[in-house]
Amino acid sequence: MVSGQRIGSASLSLVLSVFLAAGLAQTLWAGAARVQTQSVEVDSSSPAAVVSGGSDPSQLDMEAIIQSFVEKETEFSRARENYTYRRSIKVHELSMDGGILGTYQIDADIIFSPTGRRTEKVVYAPLSTLPGLSISPEDERDMSEVLPFVMTTAEMQKYNIRYQGRQKLDELDTYVFRIGPKKIEEGERYFDGMAWVDERDLQIVKTYGKAVPDIRKNGQENLFPRFETYREQIDGKYWFPTWTGADDTLYFSSGAKRIKIIVKYENYKQFGTDLQITYGDEAPPPDDEQ
Predict the structure, then answer these.
(1) I need a labelling partner for 234 at 20 to 30 A (CA). Which of 2, 66, 87, 171 fits?
(2) Strand order across the beta sheet in which 83-94 lies
(3) Gap between the Cα atoms of 10 and 56, Å rounded
């Protein structure tokens, strides 16, 4: 998003447990950020390396685990393309004491057309009342791609993945990874932060980080907030993103701006169609068989 131009930040009014989780995530990220990220390396000295029972996997085992979780994430990404859902985005510009100064909101249904084409239908989008910020194209792209981050096989080539340790996340046993881009290509957007991967299902269940890079160019500043995304298991198999939140202060040359964002992903339903596909000159069934 931009100040008077753009900004990128978010926040939530969450239950105490979520705030505590966010504080823990910041501690872990700060600790991991002190060490340069490398490809698939075990870092047992990180604050995240708190073993929740059992011992940490070996280097070779961790490489196999990472490969498996990337394959599972790739499968999940393909599966999610066959689901409809509603995505609700609400961005508040806040005063430094937390008062709401203005709001941007857009609710959209991710659906399929009668021909099976995936599309996005805006169902609610009141006029933005943000007084000092505006939503940039990068913000829109981040909300679609980076906030619900998925580590697919294709994405893996762009990132360094560093193992941090094992942690209990609610009732889940998870592996914790520090993930950051290998290099920044102009015009591209990346995730930089931490990911919690369920040990059993080998899918991401939580991420904490930010979209990068911040953009300062031609007198404009486009800055982005730290955010946290949680997933829930849908249909007993895949962990889909259901909630993203952030509450951050962005420091522009013109002054600090505080922003709060909540994104909800709801009503996941597997797509079904009544379309019938025939091949070649295949004849329809006789009337008594219809």
Answers:
(1) 66
(2) 41-42, 159-169, 172-181, 190-198, 204-212, 226-234, 238-252, 255-270, 83-94, 100-112, 118-124
(3) 34
> Which residues make beta-bridge pairs with 243?
230, 264
DSSP conformation class of 58:
P
DSSP β-ladder status, 190-198 and 204-212: antiparallel
* Amino acid at residue number 158: K
Strand partners, 211: 191
Residue whose entry in the numeric block shows the structure tokens 């709801």? 266
pLDDT digits (tens, 9 = 90+) for 146-167: 999 999 999 999 999 999 999 9
Query: What integer pLDDT is reported at residue 272 of this predicted model?
Result: 64
SS3 of 242, please?
strand
Spatial separation of the C-alpha atoms in residues 181 and 226, rounded to whole Å: 16
Rounded to an integer, the average pLDDT of 1-9 is 58
- pTM for this one? 0.78
